[in-house]
Amino acid sequence: MTIGFIGAGNMAQAIIQGWLKAQTVAPTDILIHGGTPAHYEPYAAKTGVQALASNRAVVEASDYVVLAVHPELASDVIDEIAPALAAKPVPILSLLSGVSLLQLEGDLGTKAIPLVRVMPNLNVAINAGITAYAANEAAATILPAVVDLLKQLGETIALPEADFSTFVALAGSSPAFVYMFIDALSRAGVKYGLTKQAATKIAAQAVLGSGAMVVASSDSPMDLADKVASPGGTTVAGMLAMEAAGFMPSVVAGVDATIAKDQESR
Known about the structure:
There is one protein chain. Helix content is 55%, strand content 13%. It has 11 helices and 8 strands. It is elongated and about 70 Å long. It catalyses: L-proline + NAD(+) = (S)-1-pyrroline-5-carboxylate + NADH + 2 H(+); L-proline + NADP(+) = (S)-1-pyrroline-5-carboxylate + NADPH + 2 H(+).
């Protein structure tokens, strides 16, 4: 199985790294082409994947193509690869933010090409991501194989395209929010005498374990919080102070802003 990447930015590299880490695909079976040879050719040399000379060459040599360019470049890229797709309708996994399957079909001028819209987060690089997906009718037969590929990168969830912006906020952008939270905890630890390295390790492990507990438990996150917060204890004092400082409203405001920004491109 050969997988081609058109675009070799951060998300493309995260997916490649996840598949290589899981040994899902051999490096020589991953083909890439990007806009800047000085960027993707050293990456190819470092990882052992194959750099090709054009986007069309990627399509011609691939069993699946991951479309990972900036949305504003999509039309030019599609114009370039259209002749190759006409001769060989390779399934396309689209990472194009804000570009629907219907729009992509319109740009391609056909509904016959299997299309799967894919929205991962950067944690796929360590096989701990979550990826949302939606597919057009032409992708019905190949969708199980695509989902199996995506599951090598972490969890998957089928979502209507109308919910993709919400997914972007809750999964795509939220790692940055979580990193900010870990850093805030770490800096508080430094305030009370810990080294930044020790404080960051403690905070990161606490967040990692807490996330695993939520996934493994049938209790809601707040039910789990209540189990930590003893009556009249230190934890409930901290929770109330954080809420008084606007903790939950600030999180919701961050999600609101992320969704609004994502929908600007529509």
